[in-house]
């Protein structure tokens, strides 16, 4: 948007991964045309507090991430100053004239930011009785969310209105609360408005130092200030994802049944905790979901997050669960190989049977519902698995490297306050809300606490309101989230929206409908019990000509509305089975994905087009994560892949068509049995691709233990067997 007297802000960022800031000389920059201010930590020190998210659990070590680096920098790309000018071009030119004197520091030993140990069942006995023990170390490199629209924020502060913020965020109420707390303002003095958000994938659920800095500069200068992140900044300074090493041991009986697991998980967390999730999110998420949809009674893990001179890890579609599925699914394939069993058969023998739900996993998570044997059977049928194996044998006989990979996974969705508090995440808001109001022209306005980041929330909200209230969809207005008028809630993340909407919208509709029928009864001179609301008109049952429009109801009683808050009781668990077919070029190591099949069980499907679209996009991201995307650093902490010329994203020509099937196992926990599913495709795809590539190159003696899988990993030099 464009405000009168709007200034542009850019950040000066550190070229060093670890350094002491000795001096910032902004005199030349301040003399540049159009420049109105150069702000450093010195000016902000008493105005804004550093981000210091809390995690209430033993083994947590807090950090402080200042709005602008104060004395030291923790990673290359950290903001050390802000340049404000009349235009973004003048600000960018002046940024080059800010002279910062650094004293580079030697590498520091990693510090433990989070650690948890856990044991369930008799793990030692499981290993003692095992026929086969598989040991392997799996790695996942750093990757980036890379939303189409990078981060951006406009802030305006006036003594009368307080702080107004327009932000591309997934969590407007949390952003409001954090800005208020860290700037020393009352919550009712901060307003956050969310225009259309061009993608987030978890990255925009966080609150970053740049958010604090822009708001503080607006307050300091008394003028509206705008910052739009550059793509290079997004790759070098926004949150990253995934980087983790998992050392796993699996004990199995002679029939392939897994008896026990041990895992040691270490995530390369970056320099600071991310707000509000902290660095517990990746290793703890992986450890919690690693046993997957399988009956494993004995499990022990140690989960650790260690610091490094890089940007913090944060949420990205499937956080923690992607690595958990990759490790578990690769391990099952290794067990199948050791016992000369088909990978599908090993999974069939270990999957939780449908009559075992609710099923308490060794991790303590309670899986509410599912039928994984049926999902697996449907995926094998849809893919023509037996025929694929015959085709593979013919291709191998002809010298081609064709592989088939299967992955089964479960994902926790629809989590509320109880789940987050139990985890120790005290600053994550769990509940959501919706307000419905009758407009003067008879349209129904829907204000939700959760914005959309491109998932189709507006369509689903309008569909739910229209279906339950009895009005045409085009008569439902979905308002953008504005914390001044929208009900409070957590936001959009962790596959929670469908569950939250299903829990709040029908109840709000029923409340509003009762009010509408009560007013219409007086206008129609009939009992409310004799009225029906259909196609946006209130009619007397059996007398269709006797009707009252919603506009007439609104005129008779302005301001009719209903607000309902819903705190999801979950988690509820969705899941799927993926089957991938790939071919590896022996000479170049390039991987071509020939077929891709997904059978998803996310409970009742509210909107098939949106659900399938979510699967398409998520699988595309998962394939890119498996084969392309890598944030590569050198020994000095310098990012080598800081542009989209170097950080490779999947494009349409790289991807196959997706074949999708559905089962619908309702959750007993949620209204309508609804479950979330927005992250699932990304969780299952890397594991399926890794298993398919491993299958393709198995006879070449190449082990697949790390993501992403690069062509040079597959050209014959990496030959070893898993222990």
Number of strands: 29
Output mean pLDDT.
97
What portion of residues is helical? Answer: 25-40%
**Spatial strand order of the main sheet:** 3-5-1-12-9-10-11
User: What's the end-to-end separation, in Å?
Assistant: 58 Å
* Strand content bin: 25-35%
> What integer value in Å does the Rg equal?
27 Å
Overall spatial form: globular
Helices and strands: which structural class? alpha+beta
Oligomer: single chain
Poorly predicted parts: 718-723
User: What is the number of helical segments per DSSP (H or I, 4+ residues)?
Assistant: 18
Q: How is the main sheet built?
A: 7 strands, mixed
Fold topology:
Layout: E1 7-13, E2 19-25, H1 27-30, E3 35-40, H2 41-44, E4 72-73, E5 79-85, H3 88-95, E6 99-104, E7 112-120, H4 123-128, E8 132-140, E9 152-158, E10 162-167, H5 172-183, E11 190-193, H6 209-221, E12 225-228, H7 231-237, E13 244-252, E14 258-270, H8 281-289, E15 298-307, H9 321-339, H10 343-350, E16 359-360, E17 366-367, H11 372-383, H12 385-397, E18 401-413, H13 417-423, E19 432-438, E20 444-448, H14 457-469, E21 476-478, H15 497-524, E22 531-534, E23 537-540, E24 543-549, H16 550-556, E25 561-566, E26 572-584, E27 591-601, H17 608-627, E28 658-663, H18 680-697, E29 706-707
Parallel strand pairs: 1-12, 8-29, 10-11, 14-15, 20-21, 27-28
Antiparallel strand pairs: 1-5, 2-4, 2-6, 3-5, 7-15, 8-13, 9-10, 9-12, 13-14, 16-17, 18-26, 19-20, 19-25, 22-23, 23-24, 26-27
């Amino acid at each position: 948007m464009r405000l009168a007297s709007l200034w542009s802000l850019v950040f000066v960022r550190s070229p060093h991964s670890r350094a002491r800031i000795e001096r910032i000389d902004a005199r030349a920059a301040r003399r540049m045309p159009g420049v109105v201010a150069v702000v450093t930590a010195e000016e902000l020190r008493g105005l804004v507090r550093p981000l210091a998210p809390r995690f209430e659990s033993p083994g947590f070590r807090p950090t402080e991430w200042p709005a602008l680096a104060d004395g030291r920098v923790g990673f290359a790309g950290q903001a050390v100053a802000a340049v404000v000018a009349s235009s973004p071009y003048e600000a960018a030119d002046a940024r080059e004239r800010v002279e910062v004197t650094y004293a580079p520091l030697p590498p520091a030993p990693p510090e433990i930011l989070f650690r948890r140990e856990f044991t369930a069942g008799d793990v030692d006995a499981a290993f003692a009785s095992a026929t086969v023990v598989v040991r392997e170390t799996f790695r996942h490199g750093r990757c980036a969310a890379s939303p189409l629209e990078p981060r951006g924020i406009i802030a305006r502060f006036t003594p009368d209105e307080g702080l107004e913020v327009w932000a591309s965020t997934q969590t407007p109420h949390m952003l409001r609360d954090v800005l208020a707390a860290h700037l020393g303002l009352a919550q009712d003095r901060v307003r956050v408005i969310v225009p259309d958000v061009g993608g987030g994938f978890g990255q925009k659920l966080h609150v970053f130092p740049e958010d604090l800095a822009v708001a503080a500069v607006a307050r300091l200068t008394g003028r509206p200030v705008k910052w739009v992140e550059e793509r290079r900044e997004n790759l070098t300074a926004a949150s990253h994802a995934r980087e983790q090493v998992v050392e796993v041991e699996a004990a199995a009986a002679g029939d392939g049944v897994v008896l026990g697991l041990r895992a040691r998980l270490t995530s390369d967390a970056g320099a600071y905790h991310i707000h509000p999730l902290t660095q517990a999110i990746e290793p703890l998420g992986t450890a919690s979901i690693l046993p997957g949809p399988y009956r494993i009674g004995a499990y022990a893990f140690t989960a650790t997050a260690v610091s490094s001179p890089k940007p913090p890890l944060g949420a990205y579609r499937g956080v923690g669960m992607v690595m958990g599925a990759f490790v578990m699914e690769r391990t099952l394939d290794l067990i199948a190989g050791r016992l000369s069993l088909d990978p599908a058969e090993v999974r069939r023998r270990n999957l939780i049977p449908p009559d075992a739900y609710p099923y308490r996993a060794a991790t303590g998570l309670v899986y509410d519902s599912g039928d994984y044997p049926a999902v697996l059977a449907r995926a094998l049928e849809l893919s023509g698995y037996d025929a694929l194996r015959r085709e593979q044998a013919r291709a191998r006989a002809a010298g081609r490297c064709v592989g088939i990979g299967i992955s089964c996974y479960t994902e926790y969705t629809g989590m509320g306050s109880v789940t987050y508090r139990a985890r120790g995440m005290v600053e994550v808001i769990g509940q959501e809300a919706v307000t419905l109001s009758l407009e003067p022209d008879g349209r129904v306005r829907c204000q939700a606490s959760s914005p959309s980041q491109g998932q189709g929330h507006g369509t689903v909200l309008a569909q739910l309101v229209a279906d339950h209230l009895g009005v045409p969809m085009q008569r439902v207005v979905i308002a953008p989230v504005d914390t001044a008028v929208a009900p409070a809630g957590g936001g959009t993340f962790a596959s929670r929206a469908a569950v939250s909407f299903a829990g709040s919208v029908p109840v709000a509709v029923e409340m509003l409908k009762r009010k509408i029928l009560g007013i219409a009864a007086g206008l129609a001179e009939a009992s409310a019990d004799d009225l029906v609301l259909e196609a946006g008109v209130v009619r007397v049952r059996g007398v269709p000509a006797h009707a009252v429009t919603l506009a007439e109801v609104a005129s008779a009683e302005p301001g009719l509305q209903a607000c309902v808050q819903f705190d999801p009781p979950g988690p509820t668990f969705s899941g799927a089975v993926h089957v991938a077919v790939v071919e590896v070029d022996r000479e170049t190591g390039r991987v071509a994905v020939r077929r891709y099949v997904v059978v998803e069980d996310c409970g009742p499907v509210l909107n098939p087009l949106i659900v399938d679209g979510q699967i398409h996009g998520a699988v595309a991201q998962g394939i890119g994560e498996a084969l392309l995307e890598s944030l590569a650093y050198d020994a000095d902490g310098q990012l080598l892949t800081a542009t989209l010329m170097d950080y490779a994203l999947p494009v349409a020509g790289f991807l196959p068509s997706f074949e999708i099937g559905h089962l619908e196992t309702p959750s007993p926990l949620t209204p309508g049995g609804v479950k979330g599913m927005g992250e699932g495709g990304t969780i299952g795809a890397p594991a399926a691709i890794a298993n398919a590539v491993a299958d393709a190159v198995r006879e070449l003696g190449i082990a697949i233990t790390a993501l992403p899988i690069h062509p040079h990993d597959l050209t014959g030099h990496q030959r070893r067997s898993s222990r």
